[in-house]
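Re-run with default settings, no changes from the original entry. Doing this only to confirm the output is reproducible before filing.
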Amino acid sequence: MSALLVALVISFPINGIRNELQALPPTWRMLVKIAQCEQPGKGWKGVAWKNTKNYSFYGGMGMTNLNWETFKRKGQPERMSDASIVEQLWAAHRLGRWVKKNYGNPWIAWTCYTNGSVK
């Protein structure tokens, strides 16, 4: 495992477990900025990762259940809010890749991204 990945995992406690050795997606910094705007809260990096109260948008990334079902990995929880932060970020990354392929900009899937930046 690369030293950078180990440093990232140790530096950023995910779901309260410092030693959870899971790789974050390459777009995680931008996704966290979007999550801070979409679902602000008291969780890791100021995001409500377990959010279930924002209309039909759940978890830290504020994705619909349909998007979660489409972009989550097999075997993940039924609701995004029940998934780990890492899994939420990976599902958002996969959604972003699909949006980029079809619309050119991966971030336009989220309302907090306007005019080239996060609100």
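Strands lie at 113-114, 117-118. Residues 85-103 form the longest helix (19 residues).
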